[in-house]
Amino acid sequence: MLAVLLLVSCMPKKQDPIVTPWGEVLDSVEVSEDFDLHEIQHSGELILATVSGPQTYYDYHGRSLGTQYLLVQRLADKIGVGIRVEVCRDSLELADKLSEGQVDIVAWPTPGHLEVTKDKPLLLDEFTAWYKPELIEEARKEETALLTTQRVKRHVFSPMLDKKGGVISHYDRLFMTYSQPIRWDWRLMAAQCYQESTFDPKAVSFAGAKGLMQIMPGTADQLGLPRSQMYDPEQNIAAAAKYLGQLEGKFSDIRDRNERTNFVLASYNGGVHHIRDAMALAKRDGRNPHRWRDVEEYVLKLAQPKYYNDPLVKYGYMRGTETVDYVSKIRQRHQGYMGVKTPHLGFHPSKPRKAEKRKNKYDI
Length: 364
Known about the structure:
Elements lengths: L3 E3 L6 E2 L15 E2 L5 H7 L1 E7 L6 E3 L2 E3 L1 H13 L2 E7 L2 H9 L5 E3 L13 H10 L3 H13 L5 E2 L18 H8 L6 H12 L6 E2 L11 H7 L9 H18 L6 H14 L1 H13 L7 H10 L3 H4 L11 H18 L27
Parallel strand pairs: 4-7, 4-8
Antiparallel strand pairs: 1-8, 2-3, 5-6, 9-10
């Protein structure tokens, strides 16, 4: 069952308990002057408080997920508003936000009850008419679909366009050009591009990441890449190189360049904050926070409540298996590309050679 608490506000007064079809109200709650459905619609947002976790709420490549979040999202869509999420440390903080009237809905991490105040009759009526128990399973199925084969829509091309000719992709010269300012091996950037999009300039993910290097719209804005040009190969690669350079700066405390590259790749996939959380846990446990072999273990552990609820962790739950696999596959593919030399002058990405016919045969 979805454990949700419906709202409160700022000037408290006592109300009698209410029993709803979804569970027994355990106690009365404190409420204040009306801020009901119409006011929520006028403000344009439903404020949800919850804790980080796979069943509640987490960020995945810029997309908000979690079964309870997706369920509340459906309610928000129905009443025509967005959701603002307040991530709390624990249930005590959730209760405080509820009692102080700072939020509209509280999604608890454990199965529970639904508490409703009489000052929200319109919101309660809307919820009552909308809610069906099967919505929970539908939200779970939606999340599963998003996290599996439908993550990125793309054509799958060979990881080597012309092995005998030493050509990795149609975009080799672009990788060579834009990897130079950040002092990356162009073949490493090519290996990363294949992992992101399999060299498909029209690739798009469920979260909205676009193009060869799968850049999110918000990141594009920050990098100065017009959204109308996100599918343009050169603009996309140039922006990605700029972003990689920024990530290099965020890990300047890692002196070893080879190690730093692992952390940059991991952050490109999983986010800087999650990687820093893993580094903090590794350091606490006496491991080397600047060595990826030590830190990747904690990236994986951030999927466990013991770790993502640890006071050291600021950004909560993480699907770390994908990030660890991401770094490993790029590094392996880069090793395979290391024998490729600089493309000859006659090869240009604007005049691509014919791609190999074999598709869907490669581990991506």
